[in-house]
Amino acid sequence: MPQLVHTPNSQLAGLFTMMEDNLRLPFETEIFGLKVTVERIDLTEGDEIVAVCKRSGKRQKVPILDLSLPSPPPEGAEWIAAYRYWRRGLQ
Fold first, then answer.
1. Is the distance from CB of 59 to CB of 39 less than 8 angstroms?
2. Cβ-based neighbours of 79, under 8 Å, separated by 6 or more
3. In a domain, 77, yes or no
4. Residue 30 in 3-state DSSP?
5. Residue 65 and residue 84 in contact, taking contact as beta carbons nearer than 8 Å
6. Span 55-84, pLDDT tens digits
């Protein structure tokens, strides 16, 4: 009987998919005191989930774990918490 292999890459892909499917976008937050709109999320070649943020027509990718979430947090923010927990286990 074949066994499933749960590699870190497959776990990351699963977390990204759940975040992509469940995190309500767009939402507004602040980075360094500046209001930004989180338009989407992305998975980098370096295996990091980032938020694509927009301000004044410019976009920038920010590690999603570096974002402060608004209060109340957007629907699906529990997947960001799950990703944070998972990342801690890799260190």
1. yes
2. 15, 18, 19, 22, 23
3. yes
4. strand
5. yes
6. 999 999 999 999 999 999 999 999 999 999
In the prediction, which pLDDT does 86 show? 93
| Helix/strand/coil percent split, the chain, to 5 | 35, 30, 35
Domain for residue 43, yes or no? Answer: yes
In angstroms, rounded to a whole number, what is the distance separating the alpha carbons of residues 17 and 15? Answer: 5
Q: Count up the domains in the chain and report the number.
A: 1
Tell me whether residue 2 is in a domain.
no
In a domain, 9, yes or no: no
Task: Let me know if 56 is exposed, middle or buried by CB neighbors in 10 A (0-12, 13-18, 19+).
Answer: exposed
Range of the domain at 60: 25-90
- Bridge partners (DSSP) of residue 63 are 50
* pLDDT score of 10: 87
Bridge partner list, 49: 43
Report the C-alpha gap between 31 and 78 in whole angstroms.
20
